[in-house]
Every structure is written in C-alpha cells, then in structure tokens.
Amino acid sequence: MSGRFAPRPVTRTPVRDGDTTVPPQAPREPPAGTKARPTRTRTWTPPWPLDLALVLGPLRRGPADPTFRTTPDGAFWRTSRTPAGPGTLRVAARGGAVEATAWGEGAEQLLDQLPPLLGSLDDPSTFEPRHRVVAETWRRRPGLRLGRTGLVLESLIPSILEQKVTTDEAYRAWRLLLRKYGEPAPGPVDGRMHVMPCPRTWSLIPSWEWHRAGVDSKRSATILRAVRVAKRLEEASTMTLEEASARLQLIPGIGPWTAAETLQRSNGAPDAVSVGDYHLPSMVGYALAGDRDADDEAMLELLAPYAGQRHRAARLILLSGTTPPRRAPRMTPRNIATL
C-alpha cells in the first residue's frame, strides 16, 4: 500500500499557476562521477501546496529500487519506459515551483506528463473527512496529491511481485530482475539505476532466473501473461476505474488487489481500494472504529462514506500513524531459491 512511505517537509505557501519550458541546461548538483547533459528541462508551478515525497513516494519499490532515487540536494530521480523509449526524470522543488530535467528517448514524454505525475488531474475538492483521524491528517498534509504516471505495466509488474509475500521479498525480486535485465538509465546517473525491461525482455527471462530472484511460478506466469498483451493493458491508463480494473483482471492471476495497487499509481485513481491487503483492513478498522480485527467487508463498510475517494481516505489513515498494536510475529520470508 502506498501509505507506507514516510512524509517529507511540505511546501505550504500557495502559488500561482505557471508553466515554463526552458532550453537544456546542466542539472543542479547531479550525481558525482557523471558528465552527461540533459536533453530538456521544464519548470512548472502548481497552484496548490505540493509535497514531492508524498506524491512520488508510492512509486518507489523499496530503499534500493533501481528505478527510483533521492539525492542529498532534495531531488527525486526516477526512470520509466515510455512509448517513445526509456527515460530518466529528475524533479526538485525550488520555492513554489518544480524544476524537472529529463534524458533519453522518453525525455519529452516524461516532461509533458510532469503535471499529471504530480497530481494536476487529481481533484480533492469533493473529499470531506468524516472521522477525526482522517480530518487531522488531511489538515497536516496539504501537499498530498494523487499523481498518475499514465504507464500501466511499470506499476503492474512490481504489484504482481508483491502478491502474497513480504515487501522485502518483493523488493528483492524487483531489484535483482531489473539489475540483470533492465536497461542502464540514460543521463547523469550511476550504474545502480536501470529502466524496466521491455515486454519482450520480460518474456525471455528463463525460469531459473525467476527462481533465483525468489519469484514462484504462479507470479512469474502472471507476469508473462501480462507482457504478452502489454499494449492492451496500457490502454487502461485512459479508462475509468471500473473499466481499467476489469481490463487488468482479464489476465489470470490478476485480482482486485493487484488491479487497485496498479491503478492507484498509473491512473491516480482516488477510489481504488486495495481489497485483499494483508494489513490494510485492520489499520482502517482500528483507526476508524477501534476494531483491530476488521476484515475486507468491515473495511469497505467503514470507507463507504468516502465513496469515490476511498483510496485517498485509506492513504490518509496510513499517513496518520494510527496502527493497531502488534499481536502476532511478522510474516516469515521464504527463500524459494534454496528450495
């Protein structure tokens, strides 16, 4: 669930609309040991407070995600495989503006999609907190927006890897597979950043490499089925939540949880609830009703007043830090590579 990411300082001062495209220039404080120059830069000023960590944090799959990095200067770096090709995007807040720089074949598309990525298509105006925990977190997190990448596969594959395993197991699999089969990221980045493999490369990964990464045959088979129809799945980025969820769930092995986790990121879907999550029902139940034993049915009942905005409400609950006391030991990771 996206709420596991820690908040960063919020840019609280409202600013005016503005959008400026400027000629290419060297990025500020690029990673050491590089000499590459950007292909294009853009400055965009959102008309509302913006917290980059809250918006971009859900796109990060673990602290060593090869597609995501933060640097000491406060910048966020991420890689994507766009329809135009691979690209690297650097985003940093400067006052009330956002400065972005991109490299690679996908640079232009990444910059064109910068406002939606940072939540320009998100409309929280209809959201009305109905519980104290939600209202207080909403007040303290004015920079929270639900961004959309517009890219389905890059969120779908790691979500499949996260099915029914610990996050550490899923993060390890994502990291190992991308480092071996991903494409080196364009631009002034170190060798640890990679672009997600193209669908054909995913389809050619041998069974023993999935095994070495700790991915069982059920999840790897689901990924292989998905990449075979990648173009059809990418169409879901322009669909309604119901249509997009139905499209994804046509693939055997993709259920409501995986579809919701994907569409929260690719479509910025404010109502996509992660039904089937291991922890979310108890966290929502405890925060809203003091019920640490809530199941999916109880969770959906508690979130019913937020219809149309249930993912936003759940995200705020996770950000509130209101969690039930732990009663059972943590889920034990499996290492299928040793089996």
From TrEMBL:
Keywords: DNA damage, DNA repair. It comes from the Bacteria. The keyword Membrane does not apply. InterPro entries: Alkylbase_DNA_Glycosylase/TA, DNA_glycosylase. Residues 1-45 are annotated as: Disordered. PANTHER family: DNA GLYCOSYLASE, DNA-3-METHYLADENINE GLYCOSYLASE. This is DNA-3-methyladenine glycosylase family protein. It comes from Streptomyces flavidovirens.
